[in-house]
Design goal:
The chain has 1 helix and 29 strands. With about 375 residues, the protein is mainly β. It has a single domain, classed as TolB, C-terminal domain (Neuraminidase, 6 Propeller), CATH 2.120.10.30.
Length: about 375
């Protein structure tokens, strides 16, 4: 199954020139499952697992029941697999795209994955409609969902019908799902019925001034507020911020700076980053000047001691970061560059724990998850 180059944003010619680097930070618990998986490397805390037939694993998430949900990109579009035994076996792949969404030349690629407390899977994809010069209302946010126990995803829906990028999803309690995207500002569409219907798109707050060629990342926190992680561009200061949003209230989102190392840049750095919930707040990872950093945040978005932590990871344009926190407070940070997936485990105090790891990783993707027993799994 040959890999394809995911088109995460609109500046695709720049992407192709500069390459793709992925980075991930894990927080919470992770598990895997499907047709037979193969463990390439094992340690007391981190396992590297290759899923048969999946060379572009893009996203992974662990459900409340310990099931690991995985998306990978294939030539005919995103595919979904799951594992209920910690990655020992995986289910047969299920296509995310329905037949009606398939058009000659139209390519869909994974943008984000979220899993609700009930196990419902939510997926957002992007496509190359811009490249085919299709109408601009087809350059939007495409969403699909897989209900618990269902054998097929719902038909793909274009939620916002407008040129946009930086797509992300968050799923929370009570059927809450939020779809985020960038279109000059940060916009959101909300669902309170597990994705069956969404509100019209609306700008979250005018004070948020996002770096529009980067992305967004979102997570519901332990108190039910939505954390929106994004890069600012005001005065060409490309700092990382989190905005905490009480979607049921009338107050504006509370905005906090997360990154400590400044980055003055007159152009968009076109970077990826991530925020994930923990039992006490969040963990976030991002690149600054080509270096990977991470930090743990309390439930109010404040960076907790020891503050911003510089890792050994390096990044370029379109680098995804992976950061996950296990049940004991340890955090795994992973990054992908030059077809190598690297990682480092950190203890709850932010000190490196064990040796730094590295493994070959063909294609553009990489993902990871935390197991319920506190161990971690990486999919190169």
């Amino acid at each position: 199954m040959p890999p394809i180059n995911p088109l995460f944003e609109m500046n695709h010619s720049i992407q192709r020139k500069c390459g793709v680097v992925k980075l991930a930070v894990m927080a919470g618990a992770f598990c895997l499952s499907t047709v037979a998986g193969r463990a390439e490397e094992r340690s007391a805390s981190v396992n590297v697992m290759r899923i048969p037939g999946a060379t572009n694993v893009m996203k992974a998430a662990t459900g409340a029941d310990g099931t690991i949900h995985v998306l990978f990109d294939a030539e005919d579009g995103p595919q979904y697999v799951r594992s209920r035994d910690g990655g020992a076996t995986f289910s047969a792949p299920v296509a995310v795209l329905d037949a009606a969404s398939r058009k000659p030349g139209l390519k869909f690629t994974t943008s984000d994955l979220a899993v609700g407390p009930d196990g419902r899977v939510h997926v957002v994809t992007t496509n190359n409609a811009w490249k085919l010069k299709l109408p601009q209302d087809e350059w939007g946010f495409y969403y699909s969902t897989l209900a618990p126990g269902a054998q097929a995803f719902s038909p793909m829906r274009n939620l916002n019908h407008k040129p946009s990028e930086g797509f992300s999803l968050a799923a929370g309690r009570g059927g809450s799902v939020t779809a985020l995207f960038l279109a000059g500002k940060v916009f959101a569409m909300d669902s309170r019925d597990a994705g069956r219907t969404f509100t019209a798109s609306a700008e979250i707050d005018a004070s948020l001034d996002p770096c529009n060629c980067c992305t967004t990342s979102a997570a519901y926190g332990p108190d039910g507020r939505l954390a929106i992680f994004y890069r600012e561009k005001s005065n060409d200061e490309r700092d990382m911020y989190v905005a905490l949003w009480d979607q049921g209230g009338k107050d504006k989102p509370v905005r906090m700076r997360v990154s400590g190392t400044p980055w003055k840049l007159s152009g968009c750095p076109m970077t990826y980053y991530t925020i994930q919930p923990t039992s006490t707040g969040y963990v976030a990872a991002w690149p600054t000047r080509g270096q990977v950093y991470f930090a743990r945040l309390d439930q109010n978005g404040a960076v907790v001691a020891p503050g911003e932590i510089k890792t050994a990871g390096t990044s370029g344009m379109r680098t995804n970061l992976l950061a996950v926190s296990g049940k004991d407070g340890a955090t795994l940070v992973a990054w992908k560059n030059d077809e190598k997936l690297g990682w480092q485990l950190y203890d709850p105090q932010g000190h490196p724990q064990g040796e730094r790891g590295s493994v070959s990783s063909v294609g553009n993707g990489a993902a990871g998850a935390a197991l319920l027993d506190g161990r971690f799994v990486l999919f190169p």
